[in-house]
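Title: Prediction job returns without error message
Component: structure pipeline
Severity: low
Priority: P3
Assignee: unassigned

Description:
Job completed but the reporter wants confirmation the result is attached to the right record. Sequence as submitted:
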Amino acid sequence: MTNVLITGAAGFIGSNLVHLLAEVRPSWKVHALDLLTYAGNLKNLDGLLKEKKISFSKVDIADQSAVTELFASQKFDLVFHLAAESHVDRSILSASEFVRTNVVGTQCLLNAALEQHRAGNMIRFVHISTDEVYGSLGPTGVFTEETPLDPTSPYAASKASSDLLVQAMGRTHKLDTVITRCTNNYGPYQFPEKFIPLFVTHCLEGRKLPLYGNGTNVRSWIHVRDHCEGLLSAAERGKSGEVYNLGGTPEAELANVAVARLIMEELNAPPELLQLVADRPAHDFRYAVDTAKARRELSWEPQHKFREGLRHTIAWYQSERAWWEEIVSGEYRKFYDQNYSSRRCA
């Protein structure tokens, strides 16, 4: 039996990975870890917890003693490290939590994994990163795994730092590590501060849709299920010390305004809801990744066509209105008002 730790397991990608493993690797023992900050929601794991198909710990990954104690008691074979502060806009407002969680927290996990490794207990550490560590592309070209890191935002810089710590731990101490870097995710359970669920929920509420700049910034989208299947493939087939880019199908590379209009079309939203607002600082123009290495070495292919995946995602937010209505109040509303009030979006 494989004994697995998933950090950030109550968040968007983490909870989707937990559900995937419960479905396709039911014999694995899965331990979910999350601090349950604003984007972590135990309701994402409700059924699995009630049926005792997984175990759960509320742990701060930047608390070295708590992390070390957990590793010592469980002796994990495999770690999927997804816990992170991940919203660029929040990192621009304040970078401190991004450094604490993404850098210090990653090192605490690595320290605990290394201690287990030195004790002779085999462990693989799969670190989930982002294509944003590469910086920004022009109108053409793609990022490969050899592209130098050139982060722009505080968020991207914190993730690049954690990538380098993981690589250094592998090279210095021979810890078995694999890094994945994905494009923009979408799908169920995504916190509504992110672009697609923000626009979907605002359309459903009849609120303005705040589109940065002129809307021509380009992103490549990957459905969260495809991403999680890529993570499983990286864990099972990835070569130690390697980096793998994970991205969606070719038609999933679109300007933000095109994605906004697709959402509006699906929900019959009036055109006047779309409102251009002041761009965020140092807004990367375009992301796109070459996934040939993952296809070749991991035998992995994204399956979701973007339009179909987007339609299913919209339907999920329509059917799970109680889920997102509960979490778009309180702390989130304060962040939203702080981030957009100066951008003149009602």
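Comment from assignee: result matches the submitted record. The longest strand covers residues 124-130.
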